[in-house]
Amino acid sequence: MKILFFIVNKAASNGKSLKVWEKLVRELDKQNVNYRSFYTKSPNHATEIAKQIATMYEDKIEGIIVVGGDGTMNEVVNGLAKHPAVRVGFIPAGTGNDFSRGFNIPNSPIAALKLILRKQGRPIPQFDIGKATIGTSSQRKLFMNSLGVGFDAEVSKLTNQSLMKKYLSVVRLGSLVYVIALLKLLFSFVPTSVTLSIDGTIHRYQNVWFVTVSNQSFYGGGMKISPNARPNDGLLNITVIHNLSKLKLLLVFGTVFFGKHVGLKEVSVHTGREIKIDSEKPFLVHVDGEQVGHTPVVVSVDKSRISIFSLPHKF
User: Fold this and answer.
1) Is 290 a catalytic residue?
2) Which residues face 291 on adjacent strands?
């Protein structure tokens, strides 16, 4: 009998994920599920756990299931870079949970678990993965949600460092930290010129605030940054925010939850399979909300690379 392996980030959402896991354990035991569990102890530990499980157990794996947030999911996906046959599940227990939004996974942890249990031994959807090489490093980082350079990477960094995050998470307002960080950085951030190469075609932009490369629509705790992004179309969607005032930038973020920002002249959108991003001054880069270095960055898509336990999509 194959085994479900759970990788649990006890620290996600200010420790609330541990309470989620306790509920899941009761359901797993009730249904006599064959499973094993591992707790993460530090940043990037989930990557190492996933590698070890995939290497040691190989054909005994029914799936590796993440109990945590988008950052933990990213770590596991990177840990499985050399094991594309391993099926992956996600049970949302973090703050933003954009992965569950973009990949049509139930927001309720128990509902997400029941979906995984129903799909054991059955075919599940395959999705694209983004790949990025940052700076002069030859090391690749994989992402499921998005990669961003510039202002949104700085906001993400400040959000992750914020002491308010854990307190707001307690009252389910964790996403508000992103808005607070945005307002704090709005008056200090300096835009710069950016050159994009998209499948060999050059695009140059002045006064760029940020560039986001999306595999699915959501980021920042529910912001619909790329409304047309689909994680199963073999393409990445690029959003460039440029040549706009600080006041209008606030308007952009006010409309992004509904995907209406793409109608503004200062918002340029593209699609492509290989994207190179360079900037006049170094821009911070984030991958699924985690900071990984500075521009330049080369991004590509790996079509149908990973199998995810998810509900049918209506794209």
Assistant:
1) yes
2) 286
Quote the CA–CA distance of 101 and 124 in Å, as a whole number: 17
What's the rounded Cα separation, in Å, for the pair 202 and 182?
Answer: 30
**Amino acid residing at 207:** N
The pTM of this model reads 0.92
Are 244 and 272 in contact, with CB atoms under 8 Å apart? no
Q: How far apart are the two ends of the chain, measured CA to CA in Å?
A: 35
Give how far Cα 233 sits from Cα of 87, 99, 125, 128, Å: 19, 17, 12, 8
Marked catalytic residue, from 62, 75, 154, 290: 290
Q: Contact at 8 Å (CB) between 213 and 146?
A: yes
Per-residue model confidence as pLDDT tens for the chain (315 residues) = 899 999 999 888 777 889 999 999 999 999 999 999 999 999 999 999 999 999 999 889 999 999 999 999 999 999 999 999 999 999 999 877 899 999 999 999 999 999 999 999 999 999 999 999 998 877 789 999 999 999 999 988 887 776 555 544 544 455 567 778 888 899 899 999 999 999 999 999 999 999 999 999 998 888 899 999 999 999 999 999 999 999 899 888 889 888 989 999 999 999 999 999 999 999 999 999 889 999 999 999 999 999 999 998 765
